[in-house]
Specification:
Layout: H1 4-38, H2 40-65, H3 76-89, H4 93-111
Helix pairs in contact: 1-2, 2-3, 2-4
C-alpha cells in the first residue's frame, strides 16, 4: 500500500464509497419525506450510480491484489460476481437513466414556467 498507484486507487475508492453512501442517504431521506413515488428520480439514480461506483471499488481492489484478487481464497471475485448479478437483476441502466432524464427535464421545464402536461 506504500506504492503511489495503490494509494491513488485507495483514495479514489474511498471517494467512490463516500459518494455511494451519500447518494443512498439522500435517497432514503427523499423516500421518508415524499414516499417512494415522489423519490423516483433518486431511486433511479442510485440504481445506476451505486452499482457502478461499487464495481469500480471492487475492480480496483482486484487490481491491487493482482492474481490473488480473482482467486477463490479472497472474497473479491465473489463480490464482483454479486455486483454484476445485481446490476442485471435490477434492470438495464439505460432504463434508469431515461427515468432520471425525464424527471429532470420535467423539473427544469416547470421551473421555467413551461407546462408540458
Amino acid at each position: 500500500a506504500e506504492h503511489g498507484s495503490c494509494q491513488d486507487m485507495i483514495a479514489d475508492s474511498a471517494a467512490d464509497l463516500e459518494a455511494a453512501r451519500l447518494l443512498t442517504l439522500s435517497c432514503a431521506s427523499a423516500i421518508d419525506e415524499k414516499g417512494a413515488r415522489g423519490a423516483r428520480d433518486k431511486i433511479a439514480s442510485i440504481k445506476v450510480s451505486v452499482p457502478e461506483l461499487t464495481s469500480r471499488v471492487v475492480d480496483r481492489a482486484i487490481q491491487i491484489h493482482g492474481g490473488a484478487g480473482v482467486c477463490q481464497d479472497f472474497p473479491l471475485a465473489r463480490a464482483l460476481t454479486g455486483l454484476r448479478t445485481l446490476r442485471i437483476a435490477d434492470g438495464p441502466d439505460a432504463v434508469h437513466r431515461r427515468t432520471v432524464a425525464r424527471i429532470e427535464i420535467k423539473k427544469t421545464l416547470k421551473k421555467m414556467g413551461i407546462d408540458i402536461s
